[in-house]
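Q: Predict the assembly, please.
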Amino acid sequence: MAYITYPAAGDAKTPANPAANQLSLRGSFAEFGAKAQVFGAHDVIFYEGDPAKRLYELAQGTVMLFKLLPDGRRQVVEVLRPGDIFGLANQNEHECTAETLTGAHVHEIDLKQIEGSPDLQRKLTKCLMAQMQVLHEHAVLLGRKSAVERVASFLMYLVPERGGVGCPGPSDEENDGYDLHLTMTRQEIADYLGLTIETVSRVVSDLKRRGIIRIDRADRIHLTKVCRLCQMTGIH
Amino acid sequence: MAYITYPAAGDAKTPANPAANQLSLRGSFAEFGAKAQVFGAHDVIFYEGDPAKRLYELAQGTVMLFKLLPDGRRQVVEVLRPGDIFGLANQNEHECTAETLTGAHVHEIDLKQIEGSPDLQRKLTKCLMAQMQVLHEHAVLLGRKSAVERVASFLMYLVPERGGVGCPGPSDEENDGYDLHLTMTRQEIADYLGLTIETVSRVVSDLKRRGIIRIDRADRIHLTKVCRLCQMTGIH
DNA sequence: CGAATTTCTTGATTTAAATCAGGCCTCTAC
DNA sequence: GTAGAGGCCTGATTTAAATCAAGAAATTCG
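A: Predicted assembly structure:
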């Protein structure tokens, strides 16, 4: 269950957890009296259909947004990282569910407050522009990429400063490596990539067999050949 | 080719075409000295990779945004309608190509000008929120819907005030009808829905055979049973 | 107008991924 | 330690959509 704190007004700048404080500097909402909330892993922040009144900024952790079809099919539409803003609703209801993948710190703020501040407006616009770009790239993935390309793109997305787009120069060919921690289960990855859990599992096994990745624990993946993987994303 | 006009400053409020003038009232950029541009059908407004300096507001017509993979695969990521804003770039380059589907009137404005106006900021935020919601729905379509559900959703999207979401009440079951004009070719529809042209053609033929739609010219479709079609979108 | 080009449709076949089904780890709890 | 549960992997089979391959409409153009 969610462990939610509502600090006294003006207290948001000094949360109990120093790490959260450090990370919340990434955004600027906390300085405007935003409520700070702490969630555990796999907590729901809001459900599709819930009344939408506020905006959320992820300060720490990972959150996914997903939509469900009546028959149970699920599509994860966004995977959010610290600094991302979510919970915007065109109408009065949330159009997707927000669920944490890890423990998470979230700042909550009223849209009206943002509208009053040109600085926050600018920040919001910049954030939405970046998210829109990610959504466009994800549309390409879902609409036009093969299963292998989807998984390769997903893994590259987890490499900081690469985001599945950039490719290392010729200097670090073949034997460059990178360790990454998976916060998503195979089912969540499948629902993000528009695949089944079996297909994700098979593709990952195949990458392992080909020596492109190495796996000890299911949630820890070592990318043995980042460059090779990058070339499998369909972008190059 | 594009027929581009750059009216003298302050002239944007009075374009030659009265229809354009009427429609431009939908937005508010024209009042802030935005450049007005007129494009023909199938003109490129900007290419993926072009330097991005300005923002565009569609005043009249239809525009699509698409991305290409190096091997030629294409994904149409958005289909824009009057009032929509596009051309936002996180970095300094456009991340997708903008091409008109019909003749179109476009207002061009500097992001800096918007940042100076709280009213425009609000409008921009509202517009981005709405577009993001459409992108989320489209991710569900691309990631989780069957070919029939995709085509049904697409057709419903073209019914004003429905947008593939709402369904008419039980009063207008079966024999409600709606005429719509397709501004996209089968190939463009396929690239929007993440299908091949053949699959789109087959699904459309099948809907015709089942009496759900009627087609005389390839670009004019009469929806014979809007309600039935709505039930085929996967949403109900 | 008729030729040429493009767009659309339809059929036959292939294939990538889904589905169906079972077994194997890994962690937790007792 | 053993039992149970959930997550993960793998194999066999099916299937929806892609691909391959012609034709048939439209549309453009000389």
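Residues 185-187, 197-198, 201-202, 204-205, 218 of chain B lie near DNA strand C (CB under 10 Å from a C1'). Confidence is low (pLDDT under 50) at residues 1-27 of chain B.
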